[in-house]
Amino acid sequence: MITIRQRKVGKSTDTAEDQLSEEKNVKPDEKILSDHTGGRLWSILSVTIGGIGAISLGLLTSVYVATLHENDLWFSNIKEVEREISFRTECGLYYSYYKQMIQAATIQQGLHGLVYDNKTESVRTINILERMNVYQEVFLSILYRILPIQQYLEPVYFYIYTLFGLQAVYVIALYVTSWLLSGTWLSGLLAACWYITNRIDTTRVEFTIPLRENWALPFFAIQIGAITYLLRTHLQPIQERLTLMVVFIATFLFSLTWQFNQFMMLIQALALFILDCFDMLPTAKVTWLYIIQISGLMLVCVLQFFNSMILGSLLISFNASVLIARAIQKNLKKGGLLNRLGKLILHVLLVLCLTLLINKFIKRILNLESDEHIFKFLKAKFGFGATRDFDANLYLCEEAFGLLPLNTFSRLSDTLLFYVYVFVLFLMTVAAVIVAFQNLSGSNQVQFTEKMEECTITLKPDAAYNLIHTVLFGCLALSTMRMKYLWTSHMCVFASFGLCSTEVWKPLLKCVHLYTSQRARVIKYSIPVITLLYISYKFWPGIMDELSELREFYDPDTVELMNWIKSNTPNTAVFAGSMQLLAGVKLCTGRTLTNHPHYEDKNLRERTKQIYQIYAKRSPEDVYRILRSFGTDYVILEDSICYERRHSRGCRLRDLLDMANGHIMDGLGDNEPDLKPSLYPRFCEEIKKTLPSYTTHFTRVFQNKTFHVYKLAKHK
Questions:
Q1: What is the pLDDT of residue 20?
Q2: Which contacts of 139-147 are long-range, i.e. CB under 8 A and separated by 24 or more positions?
Q3: Residue-level pLDDT at 19
Q4: Percentage of the residues of the chain whose pLDDT score is greater than 90
């Protein structure tokens, strides 16, 4: 049974204000007035201390990651080309648009260059603002141009300091969310400390600065905090409206800054759907949250020039289906246990069918295929048939898209985070199951009353939401390592809330017949303090050692390549190569690319597969014809790909190409029976022998220990 109770004086400002409103119609005597004044002063003091702690820890985290970044690369001392090379893979691509906007003669010309871009994909003009989530780079570049800071701060520092500043916002949001759940800022303090001491598993901002998730996750944390506050009871209408506005703004900014927004919010919508089905959240608030998700995503769709991938997202189809199904089944939450279970099963099936029908209809109307690679990847990942699809295998073979490594849990356990998390998760899950059963059976109804002392099992709506949120995102993290940062940061919030919450300790102490309010209060504050002391004692020396460790950026081969390209090729030259390297070529040299790492486009995926034939077993004539069809002037071959050893057999890039082309893979091991030997040797190996069949089409113009650059002949 969900029970909502008023908190006692001294826990929060809201508590004090509620008590004040209750006492307005009672004539207080001198003692009551004195007690109330003292309680209000204590509440204000507590909020002040907690607020200062949140801001301080946020700023310390920002300085911490900025210092690690500087110490790791000696960023302030290296050359500009080295700074840009340090933005690896897609990070370099995103930063290149910020640089492009900064270097444009005017803001209008910069925007025009993004809307009508013909340098990111050769022989093709694309709209960068429609294809990629780079509005943050646009906004930041405009801000840099109009602020009087050019003489004091280089553009690259303005960019990275903004991202490090967002880390402060992120930590503050986590701190406040935990505080809201538990009613004490001690919980927020513990959440922030866990986030910092588990940095390896909670963030990677210090070495992947421009990555979209580093922009988006702070806004996602704000949104979760706002939803947590929204699900409180006894909110005034003005408080609800303001909170809904915060939720909308945070949802919009989260959606605007990350291309995977729709999938993250779909999981969030599933959490709301599950809780609403079991009558654990107020239906009206859940409806508002569905509408906010749709409206926020649609606003982003408009800003991205009606991006079809957004219109065809499962989130929009799912939320619309839930609202339609709810309108059809108006008596869903009435009746006995079996009656409600039957209605619930029908409701779930109806929502599922409507979601698939609406989504299929939208995709057919829009002829949408931009996200098909994701579903192919998911199908293969969860064992629904093997695949030779190049794009799906490219994801499957990357460690970031594999299962969460077991050593993650050992690191999280070192700080006690994982142990506490499992403890709190178990207790809260048991409570949630009991509450859900009671709600479905109708034995107890949701009660909005202030006298709940006789109830043994309670679960507040805000705690219920955070429980399902952490479970679903935990499943996502376990299945896909790259998504662990969505889970581990919230793990800090959830574990610290449970450790500092009366709702956790009270039923536990009652089960062993040891409950008294004073004992629960002592445990609620003493165990978090002991945990904080343990973390400080064990990890403070390590953090200090980490901050004193100095390294330096060193990649002379890539620096040499970029300098050669800038000095020896025309500005209009078109380069082909690996996605990761070409992002750096665009950033450092401004040359035109054939392909790039932003993979959410079917034509680009097909183009990339064709370009990658330079690492397959193809004839020089075939490779030359393919490259010239994309306007290629130069092709860059990398020994690290041609002779790759990082992946095992079957996951090397050349193996993926061989399987997709129907060829037997290199090396010892089994091959599928229908694969056949290729008629040609591997192109990237054979071209180095300077045979006439190759030199007719390709001339080597640059070489070092890592890279080989060939110029394509321009035959009539």
A1: 37
A2: 140/98, 141/98, 141/101, 141/102, 141/110, 142/101, 142/107, 144/102, 145/102, 145/107
A3: 41
A4: 74
Quickly list H helices, 647-714. Answer: 653-661, 683-686, 692-695
How much is the pTM? 0.90
Separation CA 279–CA 444 (nearest Å): 11
Provide the pLDDT for residue 41: 86
Alpha carbons 446 and 454: distance in angstroms, whole number: 15
How far apart CA 54 and CA 187 sit, in angstroms, is: 11
d(CA 420, CA 184): 18
Largest CA distance in the chain: 104
What are the angstrom distances between the C-alpha of 60 and each of 65, 169, 394, 412, 529?
9, 11, 38, 21, 20
The predicted-structure confidence for 211-257, as pLDDT tens digits, reads as follows 999 999 999 999 999 999 999 988 999 999 999 999 999 999 999 99
Q: How many CA atoms lie within 13 A of 117 on its CB side?
A: 24
The domain spans of the chain are: 162-548, 556-712
Q: What is d(CA 87, CA 583) in angstroms, rounded to the nearest whole number? A: 9
CATH architecture, domain defined by 556-712: 3-Layer(aba) Sandwich (3.40)
- What length does the chain have? 716
630: DSSP letter: T
Residue numbers of the chain with a pLDDT score lower than 50: 1-28, 444-455
Amino acid at 167: Q
3-state secondary structure of 615: helix
Query: What is the DSSP annotation of 131-164?
Result: HS--HHHHHHHHHHHHSTTTTTS-HHHHHHHHHH
User: What SS3 state is found at 512?
Assistant: coil
Structure tokens at 378: 């998911």
Looking at residue 23, what is its pLDDT?
A: 40
How far is CA 321 from its chain centroid?
25
CA angle at 391 for the pair 389 and 392, rounded to the nearest 5°? 70
Residue 711 pairs in a beta bridge with: 634, 699
Please provide the DSSP assignment of 71-133 as one string: HHHTTTTS-HHHHHHTS-HHHHHHHHHHHHHHHSSSHHHHHHHHHTB-SSSTT--B-HHHHS-
User: Whole-angstrom Cα distance, residue 666 to residue 677?
Assistant: 10
Cα Rg of the chain (Å, integer): 29
Q: What angle do CA 150, 217, 180 make, to 5 degrees?
A: 115
Q: Look at residue 448 and give its three-state secondary structure.
A: strand
Structure tokens at 596: 């790039």
CA distance 158 to 523: 45
Which value, to the nearest 10 degrees, does the dihedral of the CA atoms of residues 469, 470, 476, 481 take? 140
Residues 452, 8: Cα–Cα separation, whole Å? 13
Structure tokens at 598: 């932003």
Distance from C-alpha of 206 to C-alpha of 199, rounded to nearest angstrom: 10
Q: Which tokens go with 673?
A: 């029976």
